[in-house]
Amino acid sequence: MDVKTQVEQSFLALSGEDREAIISLGTTLRLSYLRKRLFLAESKVQHFEEQYGVTLTQLEAEGLPDNADHRLHEDYVMWHHWVEVADKIKPDIASLEDIARYGLYLGGTPDAGD
Questions:
Q1: How distant is the alpha carbon of residue 1 from its chain centre?
Q2: Hey, how many other C-beta atoms are within 10 angstroms of the C-beta on 16?
Q3: Given Cys at both, which of 53, 54, 86, 99 links 58, Cβ 3.0 to 4.6 Å?
Q4: Domain total for the chain?
């Protein structure tokens, strides 16, 4: 039996309440991390937009100026990176927010008294 299977079996051996608590805590921690990372990415993108007075989409539509120095080229690469980071994180945050909002009902549909 491989390690992944052993870990899955150990996790499934826990009570439903313990599994739900672990997933809930993990969701909360991961959401916190991703929100901080998104804030950083959006801050970096905003910095570049303010510095160059243009959005990345506009810059790409117009093309880099002929007199662009090495700094703009480096910033252009980093700008792309941070836009991609933000775009990748947003769906993950949305998915985790759904889990956090609705919770996990591992044993089926919860009763009103649960």
A1: 32
A2: 13
A3: 54
A4: 1
* Domain around 44: 38-105
What is the rounded distance in angstroms from the CA atom of residue 38 to the CA atom of residue 44?
Answer: 10
- Give the C-alpha separation, 39 to 8, whole Å: 33
pLDDT in tens, 75-114: 999 999 999 999 999 999 999 998 888 765 544 444 444 4
Distance CA 92, CA 90 (A): 5
Rounded Cα distance between 30 and 71, Å, is 34
In a domain, 78, yes or no: yes
pTM of the full structure: 0.77
Chain length of the chain: 114
Structure tokens at 94: 């949305």
DSSP state of 113: T
3-class SS at 104? Answer: coil
Please report, for residues 21, 47, 49, the alpha-carbon distance to residue 53 in angstroms, rounded to integers and kept in the order given.
47, 10, 5
Candidates 87, 96, 93, 94; CA nearest to 42 is 87
